[in-house]
Amino acid sequence: MTVRRARRPRAVAPWVRTRLRSAPGASVALAVLVAMTAFLAAALPLAVDRYGDAGLRRSMEVAGPARTTVQLYTSHDNVVMPQDMREAGLREEAAREPYVKILALPGDSLPVDAGQSSYGVRTTQRVEVPDPFLSQPDAVAPQFHLIAQSGLAEHSRPAAGRLPKAPEDVTAATTAVEAAVSSETARKLNIEVGSVLHVPAVGRDPLAVRITGIVEPLSPGEAYWSTTRVMHSPNLTTRPDDPSRNQFWIGALLLHPNAGPALLGTVGMPERYWMLAPDPSALHGYDLPELKAAVASLEAGPLLQRASTAVSSPLLAETSLDEVFGEYAGLRSAIGPVVAVAAFGTGTVAAVVLLMAGGLAADRRRAELTVLRARGASLRGLAGRLLAETAVVAVPAAALGLAAARLTVPGPRLPYAVSAAGAVALLACVALPLRAVAAHRAVRVHAARDDLVSARPSRRRTVAELTLLTLAVGAVVTLRTRGTSDGGTASGDELVSLAPVLLGMIAALVLVRLHPLPLRGLARPAGRLRGVVGPLSLARAGRAPGSAVLPLLALLTALTTAAFGGSVLAGVADARDRAATAAVGADARLEALRTLPAELTGKVRRAPGVRDVTAVSVSYYAYPSDGRLSVPVAGVDPAGYAALARHTDIGTFDTDELETSGGSGASRGDAEVLPALASPDVAGRYGTRPFPVRLEDGGRITVRIVAVRERTPVLAGQEFLVVDRSGLPPAAARPTALLVTGHPDAGALRKAAGDAARVQLRSERLTAFVDSPLQSGAERVYAAAVAAGTGYAVLALLLTLLRAAPERAALLARLRTMGLTRAQGRRLLVLESLPQALLAAAGGTLTAWAAVRLLAPGIDLTTIAVSASSSPAGRAALRTDPVSLAVPALAVVALSVGIAAAQAWWSGRKGSVRELRAGDAR
Fold this sequence. Notes:
alpha+beta; 52% helix
């Protein structure tokens, strides 16, 4: 007979499953809250990396391949070598064999785009080609670079003819070689297939270069073509020592890679070179230290030594990539701490909301947990069960939020997102157990009264508040004295970024301490009022739970962060607008190096959207007191220019300060002293005494400085003079620029200007300031953080009202049995919610105003606004934005009143039997 062992009886109702089934709505709400918070927390580091990478790539794009490509080339120390060895060193295989080794040297520390990298032989000095059929704008012969670069067939397509060839036995004595030119070079320099260019040689007849083909670059903006821009596009230039400023062309002749030895016979001083083009798509902003180290090693370090070993010759390096990385690092270090302010603020509000959700759950289950404690449940066992039931909901929700963030914002650094989502899950899991352990540490049946009027702060709370006050003061002092980025080199620290949050925290603690005082003072006078609504609402407000510090902290922190963020965004927009206005000088500007056509002013004035046109004559190279220092002089119409200065708010002045006594300078003589408006530097140099000024055309005037302004619309810079145009000689008084106000149409202006003037629009300059991934990405993250913080603040307000909703419903039901009308019930709940709402609104507004005022000296928005350390309009300081202060505060009051009124209306529609049941816990 087999004896069966008795099985251990299974639990009739497992704790976790029972709790989830008993309150599915609360579990779903917690899951949604955790998933949303985990999504935002995980998306933040991914978004920061994303816009950081995009900003680095844009910096590389703006800098261009000429600055970002690393060029390695041989020195000219081998000129004493035998001629045959020099010829062998310039053949294609001599550059191709070490190219593979050099290309692999940077490795992952500096990703290199092999498709855009190249090698070859080039002349280091331009050679003048005097053939008469070449284009010569000012009768000056063009100059050429002779370049034998690899990969021409892969990076171009033949537009005419064929690619050049070269025999294997090319030497320095070779008298003829083949070459190709780009289509733009052929068009601008009048070169055709079959043309023969005669390049001067050393001690013999010129080297005949026959053009066998015209090629069209496949990607002219990429590194292969744009590292040396004249390869695909010739440019006009002048000699610095030529007083006539005669222009001539500079172009490039593209030879076969094996034709390098033939360059030894020219005066071009040939050299071998290897170009390493970084791959922008593989660069990441967070790898910046490694990237800068790799560039430094290639410029003068171990990698350069290894490259020299591969070439068997000393190499030199040339690149501006380190400067590009430095500029990007400065921009990012200025933007990062400002974004961290919003991130810390929103994170604080989100953490408070999670704690409030746990506190709400603990308060709703106070009776249940009290019974369990009374029946012998230990704190450890109770906390473990609560942790288990919360983790079952919070951990999968956090994983879902992480997955959504990963899909929405792809990024390479997943561990940071996982850590952020894990922190959210951990806080959500421990909020309920910790609140329950704190509330049920001692076994009791009835809880003591805990409201704002009767509560007395403990010594521990006082010490904690003083500690937070010390941290807040230290953060504010640090930020005011050092700033967010310490001159653009530091990345900011967490204490400084937490300064607005700490200010909001201190304000919340102070307001919670001060809140009972007016309630106590108004309680007795309110008792003598006629009616029951006023005294009862005041008494109810005074008996609000003393733990209301968390909701108040959430509201104040959210209001401070929203107002601070709104002020930052408004300050950035204002700084960009002022910088664009200062850079252009008006809403539009038409300018030429020489005098503008007389009919252009009328054409521009008739263009759509033009309100007014101010003609200005500018002499950029005027010399005061016959000295060597030039000062730009602008001749203006005083009345029109004064109106323009008022419109742009740049260097405003009175019209009569610049007006002369009448007549032209020619009719009155040059001895007439013209009143002038000057910059501080010029005024400090010449004072208020009259002094002569020699203009560009040789004319002379005498001016006396009568007003000093930091800036003026027509001229940007630290030095300028502005005089009445009617007092200038006739030649110098002719306008060279037109400043336009209104909302001009860009196409109409450019059509009217034609080729006579260059057109600049303030709107286009403003768009250029905004068009930066690093700046726009930071702004989007900042705006999203502020919006999320506002949403969490609303959620905190809802949780506060939900916590008191059952008790309020029971109160209204009981009062209706005593004759309270529905209208009185609505007024009662509205008046009861007003003290907390007004407290939060007023405290948040004052705290945000104080935060902006205290932290403004340490925050410079210039870099965020214009992507540079300096702005044409000067330093962009943080200023208080009234709209950002008022709108969130009014929204809090309106939302509180609206929710209270809605609750009173909903309670009036329901029956009162449930709320009036005897023994109901509520």
